[in-house]
Amino acid sequence: MAAPPAAARNGLERCIGCSLCAAACPARCLRVVPAANTEENRHSPGERYAEVYEINLLRCIFCGYCEEACPTNAMVLRETFELADSIPEDMIFTKERLTVPLSRALEEAEAVRIRNLS
Ligand code: SF4
Ligand code: SF4
Question: Does the CB atom of residue 27 touch ligand 1 within 6 A?
Fold first, then answer.
């Protein structure tokens, strides 16, 4: 399962709303609506952020092209791919459902670091 926009170490979203992932997606299942960052309302380090980010997982073929296209490593394919739901709308994953909170991202990075030591 794809999971953008992950939180960067500074707590901002990594996604800069560039839509390269959507352009690379052969299944046309990504929808990105960018908006401008301002000093009062900053979401990402860049000029823009993704105000709307959606993946229709009914159409995703888990090819990984979106992950390869992303210039900020915001898009990360995870090991969860056996998904099912009886309500089609619930298979559209929104930014709110996809974003990894900074605390969890740090915990996961620490777990990987420890695993690599052993
Ligand atoms: S994994 Fe492939 S099909 Fe799924 S969102 Fe990414 S580019 Fe599109
Ligand atoms: S390619 Fe990466 S940074 Fe650009 S919109 Fe997609 S997830 Fe965000």
Answer: yes
